[in-house]
Design a protein that fits this description.
The chain is mainly α. It contains 4 helices and no strands.
């Protein structure tokens, strides 16, 4: 297990160093940097949640809290994108998201009221 973990850490470190070098050399387009930052932030948050869960007496509760906080962040991000006009009628997925959000709202309301 330790060998696998060490190999994974070395691989991640090498990837980050490669990205850093490409950034310094101007080989990465700036338009992709926001996506890269979000991906790294997401990986960091997931790792932190896993470490926190492993150290907890109730790891499932810790991971569920993490998932809920991520869901809140995603919802707020989509709302901000809608307000900024970066999402609109050209996004086919908005219809599906609307239906999922309606179903989620109904389930959340029922859960908060204590009915399942």
């Amino acid at each position: 297990m330790a060998d696998t973990t060490t190999g994974t850490i070395q691989s991640i470190r090498a990837t980050v160093q490669s990205i850093e070098l490409k950034l310094r050399q101007g080989e990465l387009p700036e338009e992709g940097l926001d996506d890269l930052k979000r991906a790294i932030d997401d990986a960091r948050l997931r790792l932190w949640a896993a470490i926190s869960a492993a150290a907890s007496s109730e790891p499932g509760t810790v991971l569920l809290g993490f998932r809920l906080r991520r869901a809140i962040e995603i919802c707020r991000g989509v709302s901000a994108d809608l307000d900024a006009g970066t999402l609109g009628e050209h996004q086919r997925e908005l219809l599906e998201l609307r239906e999922a959000a309606r179903a989620m709202t109904d389930r959340l309301t029922a859960s908060i009221r204590g009915s399942t």
